[in-house]
Amino acid sequence: MKILFATNNAHKLTEVQAVLGDRYTLVTPRDCGVTEEIPETQPTLEGNALQKARYLYERTGLDCFADDTGLEVEALGGAPGVHSARYATDGHDFAANNRLLLQNLAGEVNRRARFRTVVALILGGREYLFEGVVEGQIIDHETGHEGFGYDPLFRPDGYDRTFAQMTTEEKNAVSHRARAVRKLATFLHEYVRE
Predict the structure, then answer these.
(1) What pTM, to 2 d.p., does this model score?
(2) What percentage of residues in the chain have a pLDDT greater than 90?
């Protein structure tokens, strides 16, 4: 089954394809001729995920899904949250975002944080939402070279390594995105069987 995934991010594509398995073939907006930036102007992760999915569905008519992810840091009142990708700049500057996060947490004892992903699916014209959450801590310096974004700073509960120190397989076993995508995959499997 082909399904359009609202990303051109190769890391994210690989992560999600690994979770969905070979039963599904992911196509990107670029594959479908959508080359413009997909808007993300909503105040919530749910709103952004739905906005992106609707944007693609209106332009392609294809079954599609989109995700939005936020790092929610307790001591920062849930920030950066919906602004995680653009925390420090207008672009997706991971290094600047990580520097700003560490700066804003300097001297803070409470390092509790969670990653939350919301996936919005449009299938047969109907909309569905799936959520994945992983709790953890923000460590005080970047560690590891795998993954992307805040991965070098986030250590999930129950682990002594950051996401950036894990292989894709290890991260997919516990990550927020993988949890949301597994819910999506279970739903798709049931839907296709009917």
Answers:
(1) 0.88
(2) 75
